[in-house]
Amino acid sequence: MIEVRDLHMHFGGIRAVDGASLSIAEGSITGLIGPNGAGKTTLFNVVAGHYAPTSGQVLLDGQDITGLPPHELFGRGLLRTFQIAHEFSTLTVRENLMMVPAGQSGEGLWDAWFRYGKVKAEERAIRAKADEVIEFLEISRVADELAGNLSGGQKKLLELGRTMMVDAKIVFLDEVGAGVNRTLLNTIGDAILRLNRERGYTFCMIEHDMDFIGRLCDPVIVMAEGRVLTEGTVDAVKSDERVIEAYLGTGLKNKPGMGA
């Protein structure tokens, strides 16, 4: 589904991504791990259109999407979430979801004034879709809560819900577990698995919680110094000497589940 070919992203003399090549298979939940500074988020930003790469290529379903802006990629079903959730804090959870679909008739002055029936019918359909997402994610109790009042984990669920408001093909999740308590993290994990199995979503996720990665991801891709170091099952990469060496100085051997 996604193929990254010899990707480079340089910032002056800093080679944040330095010749990375990888593939993300349709229907997979692929983990992307590596020490801080490995280039993971920069690679996400290039694939999702936030940066044009210095060189290299990104393909989606065989089509070159290198350097396309995020709104064009959004239209092609490629979405990305952020480590810090980007909600509309003064809108409710339901209203946040209803804001997602592009090209709504009510956004145009002509339709808003002269095609009121069409606008209302479309709004009802979008609201019904939002309610379906709310039920799927089991967040009905906060549906009418202002998004700014949500906990960090609830905001991550809302971001996941926003990807469900359009026909997403592949979703890039940037540290969906960061700052989330274990109970909500399990809920988020359940939702990701259901979206993958029941609705055919493809995911690629950056994550530092190896238990979470182990529960969800196969394969796992390891980056270090801007390049892909290795790829395999979570057990295989955890026992790979190159991976252990790449993490030295960041306490990998002392992390739960990462020791020898």
UniProtKB/TrEMBL annotation:
Keywords: ATP-binding, Nucleotide-binding, Transport. PROSITE patterns: ABC_TRANSPORTER_1, ABC_TRANSPORTER_2. It comes from the Bacteria. Residues 2-250 form the ABC transporter domain. GO terms for cellular component: plasma membrane. GO terms for molecular function: ATP binding; ATP hydrolysis activity. The keyword Metal-binding does not apply. Transmembrane segments: none annotated. This is ATP-binding cassette domain-containing protein. It comes from Halovulum marinum.
